[in-house]
Amino acid sequence: MKTATPIASVAASEISLYRSVLQIKNDHDLEELGISFWDAQTTIQWSYNADHYFHAASTMKLAVLLGVFRQIDRGELALDAPVHVRNRFTSIVNQEPFMLDLGRDADPDVYGHLGKTLTVRELAYWMITKSSNLATNLLVDVVGIETIQHALDELAIDGIRLLRGVEDQAAFEAGLNNEVTANGLLKILRVIADGKAYSEEASHQMLTIMLDQQYRSGIPAGLPKAARVAHKTGNISTVHHDAGIVFLEGRKPYVLVILTQFSADKARGTAVADVSRDIYNTLSELTHE
User: Fold this and answer.
1) pLDDT digits (tens, 9 = 90+) for 108-165
2) Chain segment 225-263, per-residue pLDDT in tens
3) Helices 133-143 and 120-129 sit at what angle, rounded to 10 degrees?
4) Are the beta carbons of 256 and 279 closer than 8 angstroms?
């Protein structure tokens, strides 16, 4: 398989991809679309609206994961450390207590342990693979928002604004939301893919967790069944995101982030999968020329 691609072919493919992405945006009536990808095989990088900030939804959990493994790699936190499982947190706006809505996050793997303990390892696993909001807020309390921001700063990752955990309604109403860009999430995934998220071991453990992601209607849905994707989704009523590292047989991986925003009266549709399919097809054509 070739690793070098003629510049003219790359340029033509980028123009074609741009047109295709605009068509997907139009077909799905998206208000905003942000895309960023990097291919380790061809070293091609391409983006569309990649510095636009979107509501992070659950993609912010990648930053939390990074903060957790920063502390583990520094020896300041143990993967097997027990964490008391409780459903009571403090708003960043008024310091009033709030609880997560069981109806929105009824994950028995975490909620079934209320009043008991789970390890940091278990909470990190359920935070990513089943997007547990309870596990997320518990880990945010364990490591702290400031530490998570330190992790982003130390690894020169911008394009991520992390203010709080999840379901802090008072903060939401005050407009204090976590926000991400496609380029920001790409930087997180690239340091993990490159084994540079603090250490090769920390990067490997994060990657292993992400490979067990259970929600696969985004990036994986646009790929061959044999593809392995280490990723994190993010969904609320008006956004559908996916950010992942794609592993295909016989080639180096590529990193892809797709962020979509739509009106509240629209179904989320298949825009993320459609973009994922276009990226895959474009790269396949280039690497088989």
Assistant:
1) 789 889 999 999 999 999 999 999 999 999 999 999 999 999 999 999 999 999 999 9
2) 999 999 999 999 899 999 999 999 999 999 999 999 999
3) 130
4) yes
d(CA 14, CA 8): 10
In this structure, the number of other CB atoms found within 10 A of the CB of residue 177 comes to: 17
Q: How far apart are CA 135 and CA 210, in angstroms?
A: 15
Provide the terminal-to-terminal Cα distance of the chain, rounded to the nearest Å. Answer: 9
Domains belonging to the chain, first-starting first, are 1-52+181-289 (3.40.710.10), 53-156 (3.40.710.10)
